[in-house]
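Before drawing any conclusions, I needed to go through one protein's amino acid sequence and its backbone structure tokens, quoted below without any editing.
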Amino acid sequence: MPPSPLASPSPSPSPSTATATATAERTRQLRMVAASGLLGTAVEFYDFLVYGTVAALVFGELFFPGADPAVGTIAAFGTFAAGYVARPLGGILFGHFGDRLGRKSMLLLTMGLMGGASFLVGLLPTYATIGVWAPVLLITLRVVQGVAIGGEWGGATLMVVEHAGERRRGLWSGFTQSGAPLGSLLSTAVVTLVVALPKNEFTAWGWRVPFLLSAVLLGVGLFVRLKVVESPLFAEVRKDRAEARLPIAEVLRRPRPVLLACGVGIGAFTAQSLLTSYLIAYATGIGYARPQVLTALTVSASVALVVLPCACVLSDRVGRRPVVLAGAIASAALAFPVMALVDSKSPGLLILAVVLGHGLAQSLMYGPLGALLTEMFGTRVRYTGASLGYQGATLVGAGFSPMIAGSLVAGTGSSTPVSLLLCGGAAITAVTVLFVRETSRTSLTGAATPAEVPRAQQIPA
């Protein structure tokens, strides 16, 4: 029966109800994007630390046999560095298409390549099976992984920051940054289980398990990423047809922000690399048992899971620069005491050393980087600029540090080179921070660099 013409029409939603619904949807999407960033960075650091740990323990023997043990370890870390050399290329490649086509599609691709390459490392035959092709394939997969990681962090971080409110960008970027200690905890837990195997079983097949398990993280991460929506700021750029034609050209036309972004991150990645992956090789070499070193890394990652988001929230209140600078000063001041504690050969002091150097000082430097580097570039070139600065810092700070440290320690028989590298990385960050303009109160809409933002566009405290 048709409705009576006198029947009252269905009431339309009130403006307040519509606003509440829109706000709830934005909050839901922000949480989904934050979870996507957390998982992406967790996969990145899981792969990074699993590779570094296994390289320190067994890759020299399996893929570079016949060499002196020290030379084999250096060669294994050489493949580690190969992945870092590829990262800036990935930042340029995925940054270009991320700034041209959108963030979401690139993030699905980078996660797939990143996790897929790690899974395939777990299936690789060794030198004893296929000869020289074993290290060739290992390096190839490491490069593929490096290219994918080069585009992963920038896209994941700026998606979160571009979805977040103007006053809480540090808070929400902290989810992406917290993927680092989460990935560290997961990798350490898995490696701890497999190194408990008898040595012959670990060498025969146990080392493969952590790489194969990366498929689980990959599946969860892709499932979450399929549910997120495109960045609202990039959507505005596309609506206005204002995409950069060649983002890398625009970024390099004014290279100062990229160079500053790179310099700010070097200290965090030097400490990250030397006090995790390299520390395993160094500590086991001077007499620590593998489980003792892995326990220290587990405790440190647990501390970082608390310190790092606190540093991000603090950067919203006092600014990015003061927090990063405090971390750099702490890292430099603790460099020699930390290695002295490691050299004590006391398991308890080893834990204290890694907690101070990595869980505390490194987290203060690393935490605010997500928001800071994203805020240094305009929407048109943000993916390319932030990725290039971040991956340049990883290349300089983390890519070569283990190899350099291994060579110098083998030549001197002392941990002093490790302390000097930690001091050097922290010093570069501290000096660079002095040249970076505070970005925490800068609007993300339309600014090319913080230096070009008029004071009228600064967000009041």
The first helix runs from residue 15 to 63. The chain is about 80% helix and 0% strand. Confidence is low (pLDDT under 50) at residues 447-461.
